[in-house]
Each structure stands twice: as structure tokens, then as C-alpha cells.
Amino acid sequence: MTDLSVPPVDAPASPATARLLAEAAGRIDAPDVVLAMSRAGVRTVHTGGSAEPGPIPRERLHHELGSASKPFAGLLLARLVAQGRVRYEDRAADLLAPGLPVHPAVRRITLRHLLTHTSGLPGLPADFYPQAVPRWSSDPYGNYPADRVVRAFLRARPRHRPGTRWHYSNFAVSVLGHTLAAATGTPWEVLLHQQVLAPLGLEATLLRPGPDGTDATGHRRDGTPLPALDTGGFTAAGALRSSPLDLLTFLEAHVGGAAGSPTDPSLATALTEVTRPVLRRGWRHTHTHTLTWFQHPTPYGPVLFHAGATLGQQAFLGFRPGTGLAVAATATRRVHRADTFVATAYGLLTETR
What we know:
Layout lengths: L1 E3 L10 H11 L7 E7 L2 E7 L14 E2 L5 H13 L9 H5 L7 H4 L3 H5 L12 H5 L13 H9 L15 H15 L3 H10 L7 E2 L28 H4 L2 E2 L1 H12 L9 H9 L5 E3 L5 E3 L4 E3 L6 E7 L4 E7 L4 E7 L9 H11 L2
Antiparallel strand pairs: 1-3, 2-3, 2-12, 4-6, 5-6, 7-8, 8-9, 9-10, 10-11, 11-12
């Protein structure tokens, strides 16, 4: 493995932090591993893995984020609300298909329900699986386009009354993306770039594969390389690709690190809004969620985080509000039952003073 320290903002990276990341990376089995930490704006990045590094440093490649794309969708919604363009309580069906008859429960689903996994919708549409199963390990989403996601939503029969139960749903967050595009008259890719990526300076964060040689290659558990993932109509739920350095910039905006405090009031408001707890679930309501982040208590204060996985890659994003600590991690091997990736990245966030 090789160790790389990113040039700091105003102080040298800590050797102790570099050792911490190197030790953590040794516990992760993947062709490519990147562990990146920002502490009060001072960055330390460790890169390694079992594969030989390519001409572009691993920390500058575009990595598939999978469900770690969802915090970007959440920040977008929060900013549009801060701008007065939509409201959390707007009903999705009214924005997507005004006047179209839908099930009463579907009519009650709001933008907040979609983002917080309380819509009552299943994880994926019922008719998704017949077309996906034959290509489950190679391309399960590509043949399920945006218009089909919207039609599945409009004819859905939610399992629970919206707002009453939490059930993780890629379907719901994907519908949110299409709804915001309809409400603003702006394609999702353009909307996300205008409202989130460009204002935060995230030039290496994309919704589709980049130029040849700039994307990390995912791998199956046996090490076989995989082509880039096509998320079909589920763009908002998991299509983003980003470099670990861009991910640190995104997280630093949430903790007030190197990215600094946004000058735009709506973006500053949105960054605050997405860190505020909005619901509790589970036994004795011990699981806390913000609009878009999972939140856990630690001896050093609450941590907010989200993980993601695609067919051959994994990503982890997390930070401790008010402390300046943020962790971004990526790995290029499919997740498996004994995988240590998420636990290792989470430990960096929760066990570091």
C-alpha cells in the first residue's frame, strides 16, 4: 500500500492520522482502497489496495457512490425549499401528474416522506424484479427507465400509510428526483449541478461515467472487473460518481471545514437543515435520522453518516457536526457478509478524538 498526504489548508497533516488511516486500510480487502479524513480542514488521505495503481491517483478517480448519493439529493431538496421553490409537504403526485387519479395513499405522499423513507413504498417497484433478476450481477437497473419509475409510483399501492413507518426505499428517493425535476422544469442532472455541485465546487462529481481512464473499476468478490453501473431511472437514489477529494469537500461544507461557510443564504440554510434530526425509529426509538443522514451518538458527540454500494464498489460518508471531523472512504470490491469496509470507515469517524 502507498500513503499520500493531500496538501493541507493551513497546517501539515498529522503523522498520527496518517498511521491511523494506514492501519485501517490494512483491514480492508479490495483492489483499490481510499480512506480520507479532514480534521478542521486539514486533510489526510491514504490510498492502497491489492491492485497496481494506475496513471491517475486513486483519490482523483470517480468512484461509484450507490446509496451514498442520497445525501446529495437531500441537500438539493433542502436548498429548493430554502429558496421557496418547493415545500417539504408538497404532494409528489400533484407535482408529477396534476389531476391524474391515483390511490389515496399515493396522493398523501409528500416530498418529505420520499426523502425520509416514510412514504410506505417498497424498496423497489414490484415489476422491477422480473426484468432485473436475469441481469442481477451485471445490469439490473439499466432497462428500467425514468418514465417507468414514475408510472410505477402513480399506480402504486403503499404498504403503509405515509408517515407512519420507516422502510428504506431506493424507489422513493428516485421518485423524489423525478418530482423535483418536474416541479422546477429542469432535468435532474442540471438541477443537481446548479444547486449543489457547482456551488460547492464539486468538479469531480458526476452523474455518468467520466472520460476514459478517469473512473475507478469495480470488481466482483472474486476480483473480476465490472463495467460501469447504469442506474436507469433510479438516478437520484444512486447514480453519482465522485472522487474521494470531492467527497471531503462535500463533507467539509457540512462541518464548516476547508470549503468554508457558504455565502448563499439558501445553501447555508440547507446545510443546517439536513443535519437536524427529524425522526426516530426502531426499538425504543434508538435510531435517529435527519432528512438524509443516519445519526448515532458517540462519546465525542453525534455522528451523521451514509454508506452506499453498487455491483462492484462501496462508499462511506460521515462527519461529526461542530467538530470539523469528516471521513470519506471508497473501495472497489462488491460488498459481502464478512466485509470490514463500512465498520472500518465508521470506526474512524466514531473512535477518533
